[in-house]
Amino acid sequence: MILRRYKSSLLAILALILLLGYYWYKQPLILSPFGFRLLANQGTTLALAALAQLTVVLTGGVDLSVGAIVGLANAIAATYMGDSPFSVVTVVLLTLGAGAGAGLINGVLVAYGRIQPIIVTLATLYIYSGFALLIRPQPGGSVPSYYATTLTGSWGYLPYSLIVLLVVTLLFRLPIMRSRLGTAIYAVGDNPGGAHMSGIKVNRTLVSAYVIGGVLAACAGLFLTAQTTSGDATIGTAYTLNSVAAVVFGGAILGGGRGLALGPIIAAFFISIIISVLFAAGVSSFYQSVFQGGILIFVLMFGNAWTLRVRNRLSVLRS
Amino acid sequence: MALQQEPARPSGGKTLLSARGISKSFGGVHALQAANFACERGEIHALLGANGAGKSTLVKILSGVQRPDAGTIAIAGETVDFAGPTDAVAHGVATVFQELSLFPHRTVAENIFIGHEPTGFLGQISQSRLRAAVGDLFASLGVDHIRPNALVADLSLSDRQLVEIFKALSRKPRLLILDEGTSALGRKEVQRLFALLRKLRAGGTSVIFISHRMSEIREFVDRMTVFRNGHHVATVAANAASDAEIVEMMLGQRVERSFPTKTVVSEAEAPLLEVAGLAAGSDLKGVSLTVRRGEVLGIAGLEGQGQGTLLLTLFGAYRRAAGTVRIDGAPARIGTPWQAKARGIALIPEDRKTEGLVLPMSVRENITFSVLARLGRFGFVSPAKERRFVESMMQRLAVKAASMGLPARSLSGGNQQKLVLAKWLETGADVFLFYDPTRGIDVGTKQAFYELIAGLTREGKGVVLYSTETSELIGLCQRVAVMDDGRIAETLEGDAITEENILAASLRMGRARPDEAVVVEAAQ
């Protein structure tokens, strides 16, 4: 039963195990407190961004502004954080609020503006990136060192970043997904017409999903700030498409209604670590992105091999 | 024949639902016209009517999915105006819809209580209370073969329908509407369901029941209301009318329409299309038929009895599970639409907008899609040849369009349908499959279409015509196969093709006896 529930995440888990095994073979040092911390820090930002993307993908949409919100959060945090614990807490809350606001705008435009999610979030991608540039025209800014070490340090073999990820996943995302709202998000993505006929408030559910996505993207931006200890308005760009890739790789369906948190988180680590592994394997940096893309395609084809076999061609095309 | 035109009220009843003067039209088609309907507290009330009588529209209005153009609805004396399904549910109306409203990738328990799951601390859904509530519901109907944790996608169609019924019951409704809610259930399940509905009825719940199974209606229902063409015809006690009377109420006065002379086909003619034991998907369970050159074979039956799957499977769009197809005596392997095209099979599909045409593209492009290879050389299309071809096609089919450069979207429904046909006429197809070709097009164009179909038969083509308009089948077909539950229930030929016989075969009532048919005739 449990195995079946997590079947969609299995591909990402197997791929990550193989990847880490190979990495360890090439670079035994990763099996150390330092190596663990490095690996965990590398994947956490994308894992949080993937959770943001997943929430929107579950409703049948896609959020191209995830990267822009990550960049906006990074710009706000690195510019205004200051040194006192009071200002740190205030700015963290402010950043999360900005993420929620960005998500709210996305959600309202999608639900009530009746515009396709991909266009809405492409437009807001430009807008949010623009705000980030206004706040942070040149790379720079700083955060207190205790902020950075609290999020990215480690206690022996236990990296704090994994604790951050667990806290966000288990104490923020999970309770929401286990409430009526969470069921409604899945239901709207699975069968929007049926959700309407079942008395679910479809528009309100959509807006909520985008707001949750915005907050999670802001979390990703806050963690990224701790990692880089400075601000750069354009730093988030890569997270948009990588988060979509992690979500699909992690077993969620872009059409909506299906997907768990575990798969995309694992896939995010896979995608984040693969560059370091290619480096360790001695692949020339000119070919690294070619390999990165090729490996993704290969893994996903492997994962799809058994799902396409039995169905009707017309129903595949219609779906 | 005495029909009670006034609703026969059960003694001591009080009206729960009263809908007065309900009208609703869709793009000029009147689905309901000033229709009245009333349901007492604590009764099981059947709603009957032929295809397109307006039953489903009424159900959608009563359940808040659609808003009426005119009319008032009152529940327990209180006038209501549903802004959406949530409103209807809040007023105690729960509906089991014809198109299932389930979530295939959620569990059975989540589906049943969607939107009103029992919650505990911090709004978390309480899995234990959810399980208990589902257990209670299942016990009330004696269902023990469905696991509450199973995914709905893994259930059989009948189990899904049960889940849909439980979903409605979980709302503890004052008024429960079952729109074809039992069509996939077996006899035993229907009996259990009605045992439960009777219990609910005793507690004051009312049930509106839409079904085409006369036996169920006779057995389980208190009263029935017949609709025809969007009007209320009569409300009678379940046993107050004979089958023949019900059929007559459903059909009413026939509209005379002229049809072209049927092409005479000799019995000796070798079959053009032979199909044996064709099965596909979940709703086509074994169909055998033959079509000769010059013949129109009608496919009739209530909607959703596998007719669509039959045509799509013949066209190679659905994978066939069993059966053989022969064309001109030679076995034909048809697994994809392009193979069908190569073997001379053409489909004029159900939804011309998505499967027949590319709406934003021009009339010219839509007509020449399937014959481009013949209109030029070396992969280039000759504009002059294309122009001549399109002009001759538009003339032949009398397509009304100001210019061949206009997008197909800008044409009327009838003219769009002509484009779909034009696309196929010159591909050299021998077998034409029509899927309800005249749905939603005007009378004049319908007439032109009948001429075209007759023209095809004169050229020696074979036609399979599925139509929801029985009069077309009578006017155009040499033989009519009536489908029920994925099989051919009966094939009617010659003079036996009458509206009464087709409807009777669809409802599996057994053939109307000749004397009854005479009575119906005389009454008009």
TrEMBL record, chain A:
UniProt entry tagged with the keyword GTP-binding: no
Protein keywords: Cell inner membrane, Cell membrane, Membrane, Transmembrane, Transmembrane helix, Transport
Gene Ontology molecular-function annotations: transmembrane transporter activity
Species assigned in the record: Jiella flava
This protein's record includes keyword Zinc: no
Cellular compartment(s): Cell membrane
Upper taxonomic lineage: Bacteria, Pseudomonadati, Pseudomonadota, Alphaproteobacteria, Hyphomicrobiales
GO cellular component: plasma membrane
Pfam families recorded: BPD_transp_2
Main location class: membrane
Membrane topology: Multi-pass membrane protein
Transmembrane residue ranges: 6-25, 46-76, 88-111, 118-135, 155-172, 207-227, 233-254, 261-283, 289-308
InterPro entries for this protein: ABC_transp_permease (IPR001851)
Protein name: ABC transporter permease
